[in-house]
Amino acid sequence: MASVFPAIGWRRWIEYLVAVLIGNAIYYLSLTPHLPPAFRHDQYNVDPGMLLDFAICVGVYWLMRLGIKLSLSSKSQNTERLSDRERRR
User: What's the whole-model pTM score?
Assistant: First the structure.
């Protein structure tokens, strides 16, 4: 059976899951006790609390992708440096 989202691999789904879990942990464990009642999420309602929770999850995902991108670029720079050294020999 064909995949529903063929362009998205398992790694990306795991990144989404981790971002949502970390974002929800940040929202519910550290922010909710200090938020005014208007920004606390009520179950089964679309409210400002839900939007704030979503924004935190998106921010966590963005930071994860930024870290991955920076990590990959630093690895490629290190590889280029190594290949330059080998050429000089």
Answer: 0.75
